[in-house]
Amino acid sequence: MPFESLSERIQMSLRRVTGRGKLNENDIDEMMKEVRLSLLEADVNYKVVKKFTADVKEKALGEKIIKSLTPGDMVVKVVHDELKSLMGEEAVGVTYRGNGPSIFMLVGLQGAGKTTHCGKLALYLRKKDHKKPLLIAADIYRPAAVNQLHTIGKQLGIEVFDMGTNHKVNDIIKNGLAYAKEKGFDLVIIDTAGRLHIDDNLMNELKSIQDNFHPDEILLTIDAMMGQDAINVITSFNEALSLTGCILTKLDGDTRGGAALSIRYLTNVPIKFIGLGEKLDQLEVFHPDRMAGRILGMGDVVSLIEKATDSVEEEEAMKMAEKIQKGKYDYNDFMKQIKWIKRMGSLKGILSLIPGLGSQLKNIDIDDKQFANLEAIVRSMTAEERKNPELVAKGFSRRERIAKGSGRPYTEVNALTKRFEDMKKQISMLSGMDEEKLAQQMQRGQMPNYQSKPKKGKGKGRGNFRI
Ligand SMILES: Nc1nc2c(ncn2[C@@H]2O[C@H](COP(=O)(O)OP(=O)(O)OP(=O)(O)O)[C@@H](O)[C@H]2O)c(=O)[nH]1
Ligand SMILES: [Mg+2]
Question: How far apart are CA 292 and CA 326, in angstroms?
Answer without folding.
Answer: 48
